[in-house]
What we know:
- Helix 7 (about 145-165) packs across helix 8 (about 170-180) and helix 9 packs antiparallel against helix 10 (about 210-220).
- Helices cover about 55% and strands about 10% of the residues.
- The protein has 2 domains: about 1-110, Rossmann fold, CATH 3.40.50; about 115-220, Zinc Finger, Delta Prime, domain 3, CATH 1.20.272.
- The model has no long low-confidence stretch (mean pLDDT about 90).
- It has a 5-stranded parallel sheet with strand order 2-3-4-1-5, sandwiched between helices.
- The chain is elongated.
- With about 220 residues, it is of the alpha/beta class.
Amino acid sequence: MKVVAVFGDDIEKARTRVSAIIAGVKARKWEIVHIDPQNGSLGGQLVSQSLFPVETLYVALDAKKIPAHELDWIRDHTSEIDARLLLYFAGNIPADIKKSLPEDAQYESFSLPKEIFAFLDSFWPGNKKRCLELLLTIEKNESVEFLIAMLGRHLRDLIWIKVGDKGMSALPWRKQKLMRQAERFDEMKLRNIINDLADIDLDSKTGKVSATLGLELMLIKHLK
């Protein structure tokens, strides 16, 4: 069995790649079998399907939920199954899972530009100039609409951590980083920014204002 793992924090591009792989395999008349990590043994699902002599691509679209010991089984039995396995990880691959994959597994990574993370980390009152500079750099190669969506999710995380991180699955270092940034805002300020961001998104889609201009004006208003 050959294993391909698609991952990265650029979720849109990673998902597009997964869809392209599946479409390409379908065009070759292969069978597509979606694997459910919570529906019994992964090894059992693979073996039961492999009894039929047909080219098969197994797909796990939520591969982070696959227990490491199940992947250990795949690693130890790759030579016994004549098929392909496509694993999709939203974000990065956990270290324990990567150790459990076969040595010859193929990895395809889709990472966001570092400027986007710098923009999100720099978003706080008084840092208008830095954010405007980063926006100018980002818009040369990336969609501003995508940046707005990323900022919206980031702001929701800031509110979440500010009112209590119950249920948040982020790692401790990320929670600490979010908390330090959230302390620069009061809760109402964050909610007002999110509302303005939603208006920018709607106005840009209806042609009332460009996404870039709307975001620039919002930065000037809230980060002055």
